C-alpha cells in the first residue's frame, strides 16, 4: 500500500504540536489603543459608525488608560475631538499648550506614567476645511508652511510629556524638520512614529465621523498628499526617507488590505514597523459580528495575527482592550 512520505497533518492533530510549531503569536504587548478624547467631565459618548468605541473626556480617558495598562497594553494613541469654535484656517489650536491633546497628555503621564503616550501630529482636527495642512487660495495643501505648523504642534506635544509623536499628515520633509526641532529643544528621547506609507483610503470614514472632520472635509479628498492605493514601490521610498530623516518607527496604514506593503517594508528595512488597523476595518468586523454573520472574536484575532505574520511589530487597533481581555482567558 502506498502512503504519503510526509504527512503535514500529523503536527496539526493535537493542540500541543500545533502550539510547538506556531510561528506567530499575538500578545497584549503588541497593541496600541487609539482613543478619542473630547472636552467635558464624566463623558463617554458613543460613535455611531464605530459601535463599542467612545469619545471620552480626560477624566474618563485616565480610567481607560489604567485599564489598558492593567491589561498589559504598552501604549495609547490620542486623537482629540476639537470643538468647532476652536477650528480655524491656520489651525493654531494644534499647538496651544493648553489644548485638549496637551492637557490629555499631562493627565495621562501624571496618572499612569509607565504607559506610553503617542500623539497625532496633523492639522485635520483643527482646520475648518478638514485637510491635514494649511491651504492656499486654490485649496491646495501647502507643504512647507504646513511642516512649520507641524513642528510647532509636535514640540507642544513633547513639552506636555508625549513619549511618541506620530506625524500622520504625509507632508514631505516633516520627519526631518520635527526631529531637528526636538533635538534643538532638548527633547532627545521623544520617539517619532512616522505614518510613512499612509494611503488615501476610504477605510478612514468612521474615524472622520469620530473626530468630527468629515463635515469639514465634505466632498474633499486627500489625494495630493496621501498615497495612491495602487502603489507599492512608492511606499518603500516614503519609508526610506522617513528613516533617513530620523523616524524611530514607521507605519503602514490601513492594515489588512496592505499586508504586501507591510512585508516589503519589513524585509527591506528591518525597522520597527507598525500597522494601523483603521476605523473602517474595525467597523466592518464589528458590523458583521453584531449581525451574527461572523464570529467577531475569532475573526479579529485572525486579522491581527495575519498583520503580525506579515511583519508588523505592533498594531494600533480599536479592539486592543477586547483582545487583551480575550488573550487572558
Ligand atoms: C488624520 C488621520 C486619519 C486617521 C488617523 N489620522 C484620517 C485621515 O487621514 O483622514 C485614520 C484612522 C482610522 O481610520 O482609524 N490625520
From TrEMBL:
Catalytic activity: 2 5-aminolevulinate = porphobilinogen + 2 H2O + H(+)
Pathway the protein takes part in: Porphyrin-containing compound metabolism; protoporphyrin-IX biosynthesis; coproporphyrinogen-III from 5-aminolevulinate: step 1/4
Taxonomic path: Bacteria, Pseudomonadati, Pseudomonadota, Gammaproteobacteria, Lysobacterales
Origin: domain of life: Bacteria
Active-site residues per Swiss-Prot or TrEMBL entry: 198, 253
Protein EC: 4.2.1.24
Family membership: Belongs to the ALAD family.
Single GO term (MF): zinc ion binding
Listed name of the protein: Delta-aminolevulinic acid dehydratase
Positions contributing to Mg(2+) binding: 238
Gene3D superfamilies tied to this protein: Aldolase class I
Enzyme class: lyase
A cellular-component GO term for this protein: cytosol
Complexes and interactors: Homooctamer.
InterPro entries the record matches: ALAD, ALAD_AS, Aldolase_TIM
GO BP annotations listed: heme biosynthetic process
Pfam families: ALAD
Keywords: Heme biosynthesis, Lyase, Magnesium, Metal-binding, Porphyrin biosynthesis
